[in-house]
Amino acid sequence: ADGTAINIVSDATTADVIDITADSLTSGRALNIYSNATSSAELMKIWNDQSAGAKLLHLRQDGADAAIFIDYEGVNNRPIEIDTEQSQGHVIYINDPKLTSGNGITIQNADALTTGGSLLDLESNSADTGTRTLAHIINDNALATGATVLTLQQDSTADALYIGHNADGTALSVVSTATTANVVNIDGGSVTTGSVLSITGADGLTTGHALDIEGNSASGTAALLNVFQNRGEATAPCAFFDQDGIGAITVDINVRRDSVGLEIDTNATTKRALSIPGPKQTTGNIIELPDAGAL
Length: 295
Fold this sequence. Notes:
This protein is largely without helices or strands. It has no helices and no strands.
């Protein structure tokens, strides 16, 4: 009949309402719930109708196997779905793991991925203008000097990191409190004919810059830009500028104090400190110093 097959009403406070002890199990199960129904009915429902109370489900595994195993044979759906109404707290919380060399979360053998899929997909469509972070990774102990916050390894030729920024804002911002260490360090020791750092496609520039370096320090002798060739027998130029347009390669040295505008310090003994090879001028001047009326 269409009614409850088993109904247990208990007044127990500290004892178990149902206790199953199955020490002799080998391949069987202490509890097996099976259904071949085609409806969307739930096979099991555990409900706590109090705003504060006991945990709905407590699993303890003292063996080496998994505490919970989900064998999902469905197609294009969700093996695990969480519908939460909470506004604060944590939807998933892993408390005080004792890991030393393992991983907190591992997604392994996703070899079937082709196009359009991702191992991890985080998305937000909130229109709220408040400050927030969609993903936050923090190493909170200053003594953990060997801990890397994020490691990316790419064994193929595609990008290891791709940032697609679709708004008029900063795509990448690095804020560092370092005083003697480098803020950004690029080790490109294996590059031969490529570029260690390349800025391309800046075709929309009008009054902006492809590279803007600014400092406001009132003390010190550090240079804002230091280009250093550390190989004594290297014959290639330390810096090379190539202008294919009709505009000049302009070095605007706007010295605001009474100091040297341009200084060349060379250790050469038989070579020239300044050389302009192969000028093509016919009626112009190779070197011109206009507007020197203050002399």
